Amino acid sequence: INKNQLSIVVEVGKNFTATCHLLEGCAYTSDDIEWRLGNLSIAKQSYHRINETAVSVTINISSDMSDWLKCTAPKESLSYKPRSIYGILLRAGYPPLKPKNLSCIAVQEDKDISPNLNCSWDPGSLELGTVLTHKADCKQHLARFCIVNLETFPIHMVLKVWVEVKNALGSERSELQNDSSYFAKPNPPLNVQVQVKFPTSLVVTWKHPIDRTILKLSYAIRYRKAASDVWIEVRCVEHDIFK
């Protein structure tokens, strides 16, 4: 085998065509060229004679194919000549699947939102590599999650995050774009208290878990009767009186 042989990835289900060229002055002709896949000879019907010194072959790539595609030029009458063999190693594969269910979250730490953006996704079964990028690169083979440090969580800004899957046969990309508050997860409300003020009314109070200049929050109260399995939700703002 020639030392300069190559290895390439070819897509399953697609046709692959290779061409064998004989050097000028070679004692062989295109009639002497034989194509082999591994140790098996390829049927002549797959050949295409280009000229006196070149013959191509076209094969369909199957999922179990991983072998040398070799061009040989043997000739009994020229047995004193060294046998010419050139080839390329074929590795069957699939293009990457588009990542699905991309989600990212940054949790509250103490009085601020953490600069660490935790992202996860479903890469599918054929992914060969993943890169998640937003001010930082995170490269993990066959990854399903990545933590990107933003140094400081961006407040009141539009944040764009994407995950890109790449391999030798192509790339696919999914992305999220929203206000930064969409990605922030604050702590639960603090000091929640319920007081009876009237026979049919309750007063519910709580404390904002994070400074309002950092994150504006909305609230909801759920309640149900003791003997019921049905919950009723009431959207409200801080210090609403619940009736």
Explain what you see.
- Pfam families: Lep_receptor_Ig.
- It comes from Cyprinus carpio (Common carp).
- Residues 188-243 form the Fibronectin type-III domain.
- This is Fibronectin type-III domain-containing protein.
- This protein has no helices and 22 strands.
- It has 243 residues and is mainly beta.
- The radius of gyration is 33 Å and the shape is rod-shaped.
Topology, pairings included?
Elements: E1 6-11, E2 15-21, E3 34-37, E4 40-41, E5 47-51, E6 54-60, E7 66-73, E8 84-93, E9 100-109, E10 112-113, E11 116-122, E12 130-133, E13 137-140, E14 145-149, E15 158-167, E16 170-179, E17 184-185, E18 190-198, E19 201-207, E20 219-223, E21 232-236, E22 241-242
Parallel strand pairs: 1-8, 9-17
Antiparallel strand pairs: 2-6, 3-4, 3-7, 5-6, 7-8, 9-10, 9-11, 11-14, 12-13, 12-15, 15-16, 18-19, 19-22, 20-21
Summarize the entry for a quick read.
This protein has 243 residues and is an all-beta fold. The chain is 0% helix and 54% strand. It has strands at 6-11, 15-21, 34-37, 40-41, 47-51, 54-60, 66-73, 84-93, 100-109, 112-113, 116-122, 130-133, 137-140, 145-149, 158-167, 170-179, 184-185, 190-198, 201-207, 219-223, 232-236, 241-242.
What are its keywords?
243 residues; Immunoglobulin-like; IgC2-like_lig-bd; FN3_sf; Ig-like_dom_sf
CATH T-level topology of the largest domain: Immunoglobulin-like
**Largest sheet, described in full?**
5 strands, mixed
- Count of helix runs: 0
Provide the low-confidence segments as ranges: 125-136, 239-243
Helical content stands at under 10%
Label the CATH architecture of the largest domain: Sandwich
Total number of strands: 22
What string, H for helix and E for strand, traces the elements in order?
EEEEEEEEEEEEEEEEEEEEEE
> What would you give as the CATH superfamily of the largest domain?
Immunoglobulins
**Which class do the helix and strand fractions yield?**
mainly beta
Which value, in Å, is the CA radius of gyration? 33 Å
Range of strand content: over 45%
Q: Indicate how many domains the architecture comprises.
A: 3
CATH class of the largest domain: Mainly Beta
Strand order of the largest sheet: 1-8-7-3-4
| Cα distance spanning the termini | 85 Å
Mean pLDDT score:
81
Keywords: Immunoglobulin domain
Protein name: Fibronectin type-III domain-containing protein
Pfam family, one: Lep_receptor_Ig
Domain Fibronectin type-III: 188-243
